[in-house]
Design a protein that fits this description.
This protein is mainly alpha-helical. It has two domains: about 15-40 and about 65-135, no CATH class; about 150-185. The protein contains five helices and no strands. The chain is globular. The two termini are about 20 Å apart. InterPro entries: LIMR, LMBR1-like_membr_prot.
Length: about 190
């Protein structure tokens, strides 16, 4: 019903641009994680440990300077939104979704706890994946398991592999459905 009420600009320009943006952000995040895996294999300094000498403002945290820092911020927001959408899309937590003007207090508390856990895990998540090296004021690099090469390596490989698999599956299913619809077969 929402698709039928959408304007032609939304259907023909807005939705495809949004889809291309999501594909680009997903592809960029997978590429960054793949480069981080290569860094992990070649250099021990790529491990997500804490910052020893924090020289804020003197050295850029990105190879690409201001553009890279802005890209890191956009990717972190993208990972935050996609993790929340993925959390509420999982079959186990779909019942936790709030309903308009009909949400009991226990469900509101459950949502608050879930969002707090997801937001607390985001800095460690983005640091483990190699998207950023910035700690903010938490010094999340002091976790002992962040120094374990095998855990960090498998975490990065799992993210890259599963994200690529989901991306290929989603895009290939959409292309298959459009081809079937274009040729008029049911």
């Amino acid at each position: 019903e929402l698709r039928h009420r959408a304007s032609p600009w939304q259907r023909n320009l807005g939705y495809p641009l949004a889809m291309l943006g999501l594909l680009a952000l997903t592809g960029i995040s997978v590429l960054i994680v793949c480069f981080h895996v290569l860094e992990l294999l070649l250099d021990d300094a790529a491990m997500p440990r804490g910052m020893q000498d924090a020289s804020l403002g003197q050295v850029s945290f990105s190879i690409f300077g201001s553009f890279g820092a802005a890209l890191q911020v956009v990717l972190i927001f993208y990972l935050m939104v996609s993790s929340v959408v993925g959390f509420y899309s999982s079959p186990l937590f779909t019942r936790l979704l709030p309903e308009r003007q009909d949400t009991p207090l226990t469900k509101i508390i459950g949502n608050c706890v879930s969002l707090l856990v997801l937001s607390s895990a985001l800095p460690v998540f983005s640091r483990t994946l190699g998207i950023t090296r910035f700690d903010l004021l938490g010094d999340f690099g002091r976790f002992n398991w962040l120094g374990n090469f095998y855990i960090v390596f498998l975490y990065n490989m799992g993210f890259a592999g599963l994200t690529t698999l989901c991306l290929v599956k989603r895009v290939s299913w959409a292309v298959q459905a459009e081809l079937i619809r274009a040729f008029g077969e049911d």
